[in-house]
Amino acid sequence: MSALESLVVLGAAGMTLALLSYLWRENLFFRIAEHAYMGTAIAYGALLSADAALRILQPHLQKGEYIWLLTVVLGILYLFFFAKQYFFLYRYPTAIVMATGIGVSLARGVKTNLLDQARITTLVTDVSSALIAVGVICGIFYFYATMEPKGPLKAVSSVGRWFLMAAFGAQIGLHVMARTSLIIGRIRFLFFEPPANYMIPVAIIMLLIGIFMDYRKKQP
């Protein structure tokens, strides 16, 4: 491993330990790592967005379709967010993006959450599709608030609640498994990726110093 690669690994280990230091309490090292992470993520996202916009725009300009340059003008108008006198110009691209996003999301939601779900519910071909149909129908009856559920309707509503709890539990379990996988990966990196393991005793010493300083501050 070269010296540059070793520095990169040490930097990554230091950032990981600094972020994990939040488990003790919020501190200077955590804030530095947090700000560095957010700044890097935002800068990387901005570069990816600019590259994607250029790749989409370039073929149209090569065809002489210069009307697409209006998208560049709309993008530049976002910068007027920092100018109080011309802040109203910032509202135009914001309104266009929000209106377009709402329209696309609404159309996609109606198709996937309503039409496709209704189609899948009506196509009962095996046990899995039958369970989907029962879960969808019972779940809808659970949110039926026009009248108080009584008799068979109450039983159907109770089954819908069980389906909902199973779905929510599966989603939470999936998120917990994903986060657990991330922390296991970071711990493996710290312990089994030299020279990252050299940062662990340094972090422990700094943590003990911080705890000692807090204890001294609490003393009269």
Account of the 3D structure:
By secondary structure, the chain is mainly α. The protein has one domain (3-64, 123-218). Helices cover 79% and strands 0% of the residues. Helix 1 crosses helix 2, helix 4 (88-122) packs across helix 5 and helix 5 (127-142) packs across helix 6. The longest helix has 41 residues, at 152-192. The protein is extended. The relative contact order is 0.08. The model has no long low-confidence stretch (mean pLDDT 89).
Regions with little confidence, pLDDT below 50 for 5+ residues = none
How far is it from the N-terminal to the C-terminal residue, by CA? 51 Å
Please, how many helices?
Answer: 7
Number of domains as seen in the coordinates: 1
- Mean pLDDT over all positions: 89
Q: What series of H and E elements makes up the topology?
A: HHHHHHH
- The shape is extended
- What's the β-strand tally? 0
Instruction: Please estimate the helix content.
Output: over 70%
How much β-strand is present in the residues? under 5%
Rg from Cα:
27 Å
- SSE-based structural type: mainly alpha
Largest sheet: none
Features:
7 helices, mainly alpha, 0% strand, 220 residues, 79% helix, single chain
Summarize the structure.
The chain is mainly α and 220 residues long. It has seven helices and no strands.
Describe the protein's topology.
Blueprint (H helix, E strand, L loop, with lengths): L2 H18 L7 H35 L6 H9 L10 H35 L4 H16 L9 H41 L6 H20 L2
Helix pairs in contact: 1-2, 4-5, 5-6
